[in-house]
Amino acid sequence: MSQTFKKGTFLSRLRSEFLTVLKSSPVFRVGFVLLIIVFFLAIFEPAINDFRLDGHPSTKFGVYEKLLPFSAEHPFGTDHFGRDTLAIQITGLKFSLMIGLTAGGMATLIAVFMAVVAGFVGGKVDAILNAMTNAVLVIPTLPILIAMAAYMRMNLWLISLTLAIFSWPWAARTIRAQILSLKEMGYVELAEMTGLNKFEIMFTEILPNLIPFIGVGFSMATIGAILAETGLRVIGLGPAELPSLGMLLNWAMTFGVMAQGYHILVIGPAAFLVLIFISFNLVNTGVEEIFNPRLKKITGI
Amino acid sequence: MRIVEPILTVEDLRVYYKSIYGDVKSVDGVSFSVNPQEVFGIAGESGCGKSTLVEGVLRVIVPPGYIKSGKILFKNTDLLSLNDEELRRLRWGDLSYIPQGSMNSLNPVLRVEEQMIDAITSHNDTPKEEAREMAIARLKEVGLPVEVARMYPHELSGGMKQRVIIGTAILLKPSLVVADEPVTALDVVVQRGVLQSIANLRDNYGITVIFVAHDLAAHAEIVDRLVIMYAGEIAEIGSVYDVFEDPLHPYSKLLVAAIPSLEKDVVEGIPGLPPSPLNWPTGCRFHPRCPHVMPICSEEDPPLEEMKQGRHVACHLFR
Amino acid sequence: MEKAQLLRYIAKRALIYVITMLVAFSVLFFFLRLIPGDPVSRFVRDIEVRYSYRIENTQEIIDAYKERFGLNGDLLTQYISYMRRVFLEFDFGPSFLNFPTPAQNLIWRRLPWSIGFLGVATLMAWVIGIAAGTLVGWKRGTKLDSALFSLALCMSQIPYYLVALLLVLVFAYVLGTFPPRWAFSPTVTPGLNLEFIASVLKHATLPALSLILVQVPSWVISTRALTISILGEDYLLYAQAKGVKKVRLLNRYVLRNILLPQLTGLAMSLGFVMNGFFLIEWIFSYPGIGTLLVQAIPVLDYNTIQGIALISIFTVLSANLIIDVLYPLVDPRIRTGG
Amino acid sequence: METPLLELRNITKDFAIGGGLGLGEKKSIKAVDDVSLTVSREKPTILALVGESGSGKTTIARITLGLLGPTSGEILYEGRDVRNWIKKDKKTYRRNVQVIFQDPYSIYNPFYRVDRVLFKAVKKFGLASSSKEARDMVIESMRAMGLRPEDLLGRYPHQLSGGERQRLMLVRILLIKPKLVIADEPVSMIDVSLRSIFLNNLQDLRSRLEMSTIYITHDLNIAHYISDEMMVLCYGRMVETGETKSVVKDPLHPYTQGLVNAIPTPNPRKRWKDTIEIEEVTFKELLAQRQRCIYSHRCPHVMPICKEKIPPLMEVKSGRKTACFLYAEVLETAKLE
What we know:
Chain B has 319 residues and is an alpha/beta fold. Chain B contains ten helices and twelve strands. Chain D is globular and about 70 Å long. Chains in contact: A-B, A-C, A-D, B-C, B-D, C-D.
């Protein structure tokens, strides 16, 4: 069964790799399904809410009676401001995810840059950058975040940036460790022997093998960012025009919802948050499980 | 060869690995028997299933590997019928093992003597002090200085670790020791020392040894009878003289011819590629590489037949 | 390894940590100062409001306060004078929260509460997590393993402040078995009497539990993964082949090799815990440095925030140092300079 | 005597081994200790560097390839220092001096197909003007090495066996046509049956490309089979050099003798008669007092002088050098006559 020189595209290989991962790791399968649900809700939130609230924006006050019980029309009832609880919680999910992903993206960019420079240049530069990473890890980031959120006009980009500034070290550490181990591989030395210069080696030999780990770094940074963002919102800080799940929790807290028995206003956002975290983490564990010695799984050949 | 009661008989043993591509048939129907007080060699190239075979016999197979079927009679008790506790008591008492990964078979955070004492005290209630005496005595017997007992594994060289493992194997004077590739990772001078220690087990202690290695020259030095394995099956069994001087199976012939040595000037390899255990070739598994291939070879897998006393071969040329 | 080598090693590690602390502390200093919002004028206005009388020469008074808080002059001189005051005179300077008392007094009064509940919760979580993780790992592949693993995986995802909220909801409001806030009930007189201690423990259960319920599962997961990899190691297979009994196998072969990496894990996790426990204290209005911080932030009380931050940095780094010192004693490979 | 193709002059390489995590004072071990060798330019030869693990043979290879700098001594390729080559025109040096690494499983980037290794070499060294010409060159070279392009090109590394991967490395060498190849134990990880095919191809390259090879191995059988000259190393020091066949037939240095008769002969009739005593050498002894013959702690013929002075490499017979005081008198008497 010899394949003549079929130039199989890189995408087809990624797809087949993805299918094997899907087939062999149950943890990944469950995580992937949850992830699809989360992204489906986030992306189609406007359509869902338009359909369910026939045109009213989910965040508008006073559209319905206040604190209605569960009903067919309002599966989770309504909240203190007369908004459909389920609709506003899905909107909250969208904003939490949006902020998380932007912050995660920024953090991963910083992390990849720092890890590549540190791992690749090595020597003195590596020592300094590594010390910086550890220093940022040690600073209690929450107080600063809270202080910044309290005093600065926050929009999506600014809050994501502040979150990213403090969550990049986690991703940087894993990526740097991976680069250091990849640098010792035989094919890097062979590339050196074929006259490839440092940059070619970095970007054509090492970076492609980093993709799974950058993915893991990205999801860790995103989870970290959402955790921190929700923390901020629970004590009532952050941009009001981006009502994330944390803000819903804060509203529930300030109205003493728990004492009055409207538990769904607390349990709902909490459940959605946990859904996001679990989906990302299961996918993460699945990917990590796969990308360590995968060959050992097949046989002892 | 006087008729003697074999110490170990294996009948049609199959050991497979579960994988997402289906069952990998590493050991696919192997039968042989080992006589007491002999060094019984198992040779074959990587991927032929020799290590999986002995791991199956000792039941130290780790998932995803599992024993599909077969019988293992050790002093006519079937090891497959023993429960964990019986197996645990038998191990090291009467049947011990020198693992393939001897280099890292020692617990890095325990001293050498502690690990040897563990082996003794889990089998009988000899007091700790006496167990330490036994351990130190064994270390001397395999040519190691007494200080090694108090040392940690990372302080020992490869050869020393190997000999600690051999010493541990004979702590309770077992009747059968299985050594899985004990010399592969060693330098040639240290390798000779270890081969001699293994031969001493038979000569000085009357212990039967199953010796697994891919280097045929090592077999020639210490082995009494030899098995050649190929693609999960036995190709040939015979005394070491028969197999080296008059190999029957075409694969054995090529294998013996391919051993580089100082006498030979020209050495030819075996054409073609070793088959993959995921899908063995049909019929006789050597037929794609066999110089005497016949039409029947690609259809029917020849069973292992006994030509004369203790001499077996699995090849259509002899049927 | 002789004494001299060990001491030199500890000194080297300690030096690295001191430098990291200084760097982190300084980064914090500049970050806080860069945040817009002028705390002093806000503080003066508060006084006017609180004691409801107009102050005529507000500007002079503001300058006087700025002087007192060391907030005049350019950022660099502020930084130098501040660092000298903190690290040489061990004085964090006055706090905005209740003015004349220096920040460190505020902190010292509340620190024992935080250390008590935080230290106990983290260590308990670590011990339980490791024990459970080893057992789950040992029973890998069984129904129990997959059930506990998925449960742990989900539990470890819930953010601790959410757990705190849910605990308050369930145990304080719905069941009413535990008090929802404060460190001890007002009816009890603080002192070494049994009643006070019982009340303190009762009040501390929910905050400690909200930390433990999240940390134990994450320790279970990491320990389980470690156990499974160790169970695959050659020396484990060999020990089993030697017929070593299960109990001895577990503690001398598996556990001994788990403690080392998990010790470093503990040190690293402290950084994460330090980041999060402020919220728990705030939710339970527990009188620790967490609540103090949450109060200090709206007022932008630089000195108190810096003080609390320094304490948390110091705790994390000293924990790391202790574990660095413990490491050679536990791992023979380092002890004998292999 | 015009400049040789490659010359190593008194190469030494120290590795610092402080205790773990910066403990313990800085002890250093001499991985390579005063090694010199030359590879002639006119007659392409295969020089085998033989020694047990820890003898420094791989370190010498990495120094020659410029992957590692020596602590002292010079490496001259066509009379010019290698570091200068690499700084000034690295491409020509890489074009002339190539490598075959030991582990076939780590020299292929799992992300790409195996073709990349070959086409990258053609591109970087500008061996072909168009991609069509490059493809033809690759196919032709593969056929020359007895490999079927249809079976291998387009495949990913994990789909190839160890033997096939190493033979692809030979195709790469055939494409680049270097003057010198450093082969670091290329067959130690592939099966006996496939080894001889690789070794025969390597010898064929010597004549086809007028190419010299430094072949590094711990296996005397292979060294005897493939090399013309041989240098035996022990813990970083040269103990014996000479024409391979005669060194193996009549080893001079006790260490070489130990190596030769430790090889298991594949003939059950000719088994070892005597048992040899082996004392293991621990790190401490290795670091101990350096002013002695490196083999003195294990040598059956050890003399007091062996423990005080380092034996120089002396020419004892024509073309046969060894570093051992046993032969000191022979030389004295020879000089007297």
